[in-house]
Amino acid sequence: MSQYKEEIIKLADTTLLTNKQIAKVVGCGEKTVYKYAGSFASRCEKKSSMNDKLYEIQKTVLLPDIHYPHIDPKVMESVNQFIFEYEPHELVYMGDQMSLDCISGWNKRKPLLKEGQRLVNDYETFDRDILRVHETLTADDTRRTFLIGNHEERVNWYIQEHPELEQLIDIDRNLNLTERGYNIIPFNQIYKLGKLSVIHGYYWNKYHAAKTLESFEGNVVYAHVHNPQIYSKVSPVDRRGYHMAACLGCLCNIKPDYKKGLPNFWVNQFGVVEWLPATGYFNLTPITIIDGTFMWNGTYYGKNL
Fold first, then answer.
1. CATH number of 54-301: 3.60.21.10, 3.90.199.10, 3.90.180.10, 3.30.499.10?
2. 3-class DSSP assignment, residue 245
3. Residues 2-7: what's their mean pLDDT?
4. Of 71, 128, 164, 208, which one has the fewest beta carbons inside 10 Å?
5. Is the model's pLDDT at 1 over the cut of 90?
6. Is the CA virtual torsion 9, 14, 20, 22 positive or negative?
7. How far is the C-alpha of 125 from the C-alpha of 111, rounded, in Å?
8. Counting beta carbons within 10 angstroms of the beta carbon of residue 239, is it exposed (0 to 12), middle (13 to 18) or buried (19 or more)?
9. Spatial distance between the Cα atoms of 102 and 200, rounded to a whole number of angstroms
10. Share of the chain above pLDDT 90, in %
11. HSE-up (13 A, CA, CB side) for residue 124
């Protein structure tokens, strides 16, 4: 048996590499690849007939840190325009969709900061202004994933102090997410898009991308910090085995009242991931929004010039 057989078969089954490309990776001749994997055309035909969905590029929009109601309307309007025209297969809310200030531990014993705020109103207006808008802009079969961020986790922290409210103020119960087909990812858990892990975010230090990559040892995109960073790591043993941690910015108002005009490093951003189920390979594109505007694929989004 050829020393190359196992690797050739694996590459032929799990990638869309041509025979020439497989031969180059493995270090053998094209005839050897053909012997064990057949022709590239026959493999493509077989894979296509097996499962069309495996070879359909999946388009995903990543929506980081909306922090409703602390939004910039012109930012959300441009993103909504993009969602409608892009026609994604999936929307991923990356955590901190809602701010939930009225139950924040930071506002404990500060009633003036919570004056007029009601949790039920936070749920109802977020559903009306964000979730139902996106449901209207997208197809019925669009997948919807809802990561629990530290701000949504405030509900559970509040219940720990007020156990009599358990279930009554639960996010899923009030927004009917499961019933509406949303995939809910618990706090600090991982969601996968092929070979890309999606999390809300664990760290807040200066070099958070490097620290995140050290923890994951794999490709990961996160939010949480509102500060875009990318850090990559390439193995000297296998140049194909590189990993990357990428932090997206946020979709909230980047000049929050509580900062009192202090400078910060917040940037309005969202992300697009296009990935192939057959291989798990992906391309991640962060899109930066400036004054509510951005450009994608030759199209301008946002306010009129």
1. 3.60.21.10
2. strand
3. 82
4. 164
5. no
6. negative
7. 22
8. exposed
9. 21
10. 65
11. 5
Compute the distance between CA of residue 51 and CA of residue 253 in angstroms, rounded to an integer: 43
Strands of the 191-193 sheet, one edge to the other? 191-193, 196-198, 220-222, 242-247, 229-234
Q: Residue 281 — very low, low, confident or very high, per pLDDT cuts 50/70/90?
A: very high
Residue partners of 60: CB distance under 8 A and separation at least 6: 88, 89, 90, 91, 92, 193, 272, 273, 274, 275
Could you identify the residue written with the tokens 């910015």?
A: 249
Q: Cβ(148)–Cβ(95) under 8 Å?
A: yes
Q: Using CA atoms, how far apart are residues 230 and 155, in angstroms rounded to an integer?
A: 31
In this predicted model, what pLDDT tens digit does every residue of 145-155 receive, in sequence order?
Answer: 999 999 999 99
- Which pLDDT value is given to residue 52? 67
Q: Averaged over 265-284, what is the pLDDT?
A: 94
Secondary structure E strands in 28-85: 58-63
Q: Which residue has the tokens 């196992």?
A: 6
- Report the C-alpha gap between 62 and 264 in whole angstroms: 23
* Count of CB atoms situated within 10 Å of the CB of 243: 16
Kindly state the tokens that stand for 285. 């594109």
Q: Are 278 and 58 a contacting pair, CB within 8 Å?
A: no
Give the C-alpha separation, 270 to 253, whole Å: 13
What's the mean per-residue pLDDT of the chain? 90
List all residues 6 or more positions away from 183 whose beta carbon is below 8 Å from its beta carbon: 143, 144, 145, 146, 191
DSSP state of 175: H
Is residue 177 classed as helix, strand or coil in its secondary structure?
Answer: coil
So where are the chain's domains? 5-50, 54-301
Cβ-based neighbours of 107, under 8 Å, separated by 6 or more: 101, 113, 114
Q: Are strands 242-247 and 220-222 parallel, antiparallel or unpaired?
A: parallel
Q: Which two tokens stand for residue 185?
A: 């990812």
